Amino acid sequence: MSPQLLFWVPALLRLLMLLAIAGLAWWMGGAVAGLSAAVLLLLGQLVLQLSYLQQLSAWLDDFDSTRLPDGWGAWTGVFSRLYRLRRDEERSQAELSEWLARFRQAMHLLPDGVAIMDDVLFLEWCNPAAERHLGLTLERDKGMRVTNLVRHPDFIDYIVLGRYEQPLTLSLRERKLIVQIIPFENRRQILVTHDATESARIEEMRRDFIANASHELRTPLTVIVGFLEIASTTPDLDVASRQAHLKLMTEQGHRMQRLIEDMLTLSRLESVDYPMRPEPVPVKALIEDVLEEAKALSGGRHSVTASIDGPDVVGSAEELRSAFANLASNAVRYTPPGGTVHLSWKDTPQGPQFAVSDSGIGIDQLHIARLTERFYRVDKSRSRETQGTGLGLAIVKHVLLRHRAQLTIDSVAGKGSCFTVTFPKR
Predict the structure, then answer these.
(1) Does domain 202-270 match CATH 1.10.287.130?
(2) Judging by beta carbons within 10 Å of its beta carbon (0-12, 13-18, 19+), is residue 196 exposed, middle or buried?
(3) What is the band of 389 on the pLDDT scale with cuts at 50, 70, 90?
(4) Nearest C-alpha neighbor of 392 from the set 340, 329, 336, 341
(5) What is the pTM of this model?
(6) Among the residues of 178-273, which ranges form H helices?
(7) Which pLDDT value is given to residue 113?
(8) Between the ranges 56-70, 152-166, 200-214, where is the mean pLDDT highest?
(9) 372 has pLDDT over 70
(10) 298 and 336 in contact (C-beta within 8 Å)?
(11) What torsion do the CA atoms of 36, 42, 44, 50 make, to the nearest 10 degrees?
(12) CATH fold of 279-422, please?
């Protein structure tokens, strides 16, 4: 049945009932009684309808009220429909609030910055990443023009030119940002920021690695090729010179071999296809071997000692030996004759610790953060003297990552250094 019939059929039935009551009063009491009954019934209906209108008006004024008025007649259907509409609206509002909460949570967790602006670039909303990237504070800066908040000439030019098809690379707040504006709706724009600092640093490290590896390999090859050319053009070279050339070529060949072996080791440690096979590691015997190697490298020019009082660990004995040996050999190489080098292994509340301390040349604080980068040199001329490959600490770093250990470097230029490896507790 159509809504119109649902309304008019009950209304006509009620009207017929009122007329029947008035007619009955007319028949029993005469015309005056019938008219009086009709007027009273009509007035009662009018008061009743006005009462329902007043209740509806009061409910509309207090829409949040949980109590809907009860109705009679046609009002029953009206109030029922209003109740259903309100219930549907509450359900829609709950779903909208849930989706809005999810959206805000997602925007808060997003690593990229997102800022919503109106058509004249006034800030309406931004997520925490955008606050970090652009130096904004939503509570303070909401409603302000973005160009007044980000005062960078390149950003201003990007806004003025309006060429938003290509992103803008921006150096801001000691970070490298990729910024792009995306038109959104008719009167909205989205400002998206991506922090490319780490990517740029990795790319720079990759370029440096290729350049340094090429340089390190070219130097011994140049020496070897040079002496080979001398030998081929001077067949009657005296024996002493020939022996000296062969010695230098052998040294440079060994240097190149060590470099390639270290590069292969580093590549193997970084590979996901090279899993570690944990095994019990007898640390006391391992450190004693490292101590003997350090003494042999020192050749009696240093006081090289060790104290061993710690537990065994689980890991790769070969990898740990390589890491410990690199730290010990670095200490010997960068400690002047007459200095001291001490190896220690002990148990601490933080976990087992291996430490190498020396009284060597030390390291300036400026360089400590980059020491574990491939081919990073504090002093290139001294590195050539010590015959290092520049990959030792990078190998140490990756070995420790595979063992969930942490490397701490404490050093003072001119006074010595202490490299501490802390393993996790059992």
Answers:
(1) yes
(2) middle
(3) low
(4) 329
(5) 0.55
(6) 197-233, 239-270
(7) 93
(8) 152-166
(9) yes
(10) no
(11) -150
(12) Heat Shock Protein 90 (3.30.565)
